[in-house]
Design goal:
alpha+beta, Jelly Rolls, Rossmann fold, 2 domains, five-stranded antiparallel beta sheet, 23 strands, 24% helix, globular
Length: 429
């Protein structure tokens, strides 16, 4: 009788746990694919759905009840593998091409070349995280979005976290859909499982690196800075500012500075000509008592052509950015990172980039004007343009982004300057 009572208690406890576990909002194993969202995708007897070529399907937009807080988990295998092909495993983006939402693309380049998965954030294809492709080997991807910040995982292994806030849209999430008609897609990919969870589900990877100090955010009107939790008031603080390029080198910079320097990350850029932007920059720069600030306005300034922006206008906006940092953090040593090259698009997945892009003269002009401003303002320049021009094979192939090894070059330069400044300060210089 006692054994039976104990068994009932255990069963009740297990049932209680199951009842408390959040259920997916949408589950491929149980949910029907709406007819209007099925474009030739075929469900097999095992419940898996085959996509590839011109065949794809969509998860209804209604599955994303809170677009700032959701998790998508998809398990996929590739029965047939052909090199120089790609597959948009997930894509939730406005149909008119507006840069919103997120996605995930698998690229199977030629042997010994680019075999990666790539996050897509607000239309930007960001870097590439290496993976292996083997016939019929299943892989599970997880995209966890919390407060608009997206983190990517492959088989529970953390890939990258993007602090550019995901801009919401009311589109379905497409599985296997082409981005552009000229894409060579995988012949076939089998979606073995796909679940969408709501805000009540919190994904935790068992392979997440432990021991890292927790991070949060400091925000004001029109700005937000990803910030560490300060537990040592004597540890120096560093701010790095930029667009998706800063997101690329972040993955190397944070581990390199962990436990030595508190690194704050401000994902921001000035896209238009704005000589009054100094007030906004000043607010962010005063968020903490920074000793070092590394900044760059990036390739979002490619619209600053001679027809649309004079040298004087570019100099005024650049100077406003500098003076905003100076006023907000007068105690900080400032470094400007030269804008990286605009490169040609890769002619096919996996083929190295071997030429500069047609907009690169704009980059050269902006760098030239910015360098003069930095000289006048007494800001040290870190030239990342020249070494990147010499290593175009490290370009990601989308005209703007780079492979991880290139981003490490920027991180290494920042770490070197950081160590130099802190050493001089400790010696009393």
């Amino acid at each position: 009788m006692k054994a039976l009572y104990t068994s009932l208690l255990i069963l009740g406890f297990v049932s209680s746990l199951r009842a408390q576990a959040p259920l997916p909002v949408w589950d491929l194993a149980k949910s029907e694919i709406p007819e209007e969202l099925n474009h030739g995708a075929n469900r097999g007897d095992d419940g898996g759905v085959t996509v590839g070529g011109d065949h794809y399907f969509g998860v209804p937009a209604s599955a994303f009840q809170d677009q700032r807080n959701f998790t998508v988990q998809v398990t996929v295998s590739f029965p047939e593998l052909v090199e120089d092909t790609s597959l948009n495993v997930l894509l939730k983006q406005r149909a008119d091409g507006e840069d919103t939402g997120l996605g995930l693309t698998c690229i199977n380049g030629k042997s010994g070349s680019w075999k990666v998965y790539r996050p897509i954030i607000n239309g930007m294809h960001i870097g590439g995280i290496r993976m292996s492709f083997e016939p019929n080997k299943p892989h599970t991807f997880t995209i966890a979005v919390r407060e608009g910040v997206a983190s990517y995982y492959l088989d529970d292994v953390p890939g990258s976290r993007h602090f550019t806030l995901v801009l919401p849209n009311n589109e379905p999430m497409w599985v296997g859909k082409k981005l552009m008609p000229r894409e060579r897609t995988f012949i076939a990919a089998k979606i073995l499982a796909l679940k969408v969870y709501g805000a009540d589900f919190e994904y935790k990877s068992p392979k997440e690196k432990q021991g890292l100090e927790p991070r949060g955010a400091i925000a004001g009107k029109n700005w937000m800075i990803d910030a560490p939790t300060v537990v040592d008031s004597k540890r120096p603080k560093l701010l790095f500012y930029g667009d998706s390029i800063s997101g690329g080198y972040r993955q190397h910079l944070l581990p390199a500075l962990e436990g030595k320097v508190y690194a704050y990350h401000w994902v921001h850029f000035v896209g238009g000509l704005d000589p009054k932007v100094d007030s906004l920059i000043q607010q962010g720069a005063s968020a903490a008592d920074f000793q070092l600030i590394f900044f760059n306005n990036g390739l979002h300034s490619l619209s600053w052509t001679p027809e649309k922006a004079s040298d004087e206008q570019i100099a005024e906006t650049t100077r406003a950015i500098v003076r905003g940092f100076k006023r907000g953090a007068p105690q900080a040593k400032l470094f400007w990172i030269a804008t990286t090259p605009h490169t040609a698009r890769s002619s096919s997945p996996g083929k190295p980039v071997d030429a500069l892009g047609e907009k690169n003269p704009v980059v050269i002009r902006i760098n030239r004007i910015a360098e003069q401003v930095m000289k006048e303002e007494g800001v040290e320049v870190i030239d990342m343009y020249t070494p990147f021009v010499a290593k175009l094979e490290l370009a990601a192939g989308d005209e703007y982004h780079w492979f991880s090894s290139a981003y490490k070059m920027i991180s290494d330069a920042i770490v070197s300057k950081t160590n130099e400044v802190l050493r001089l300060k400790s010696e009393g210089h």
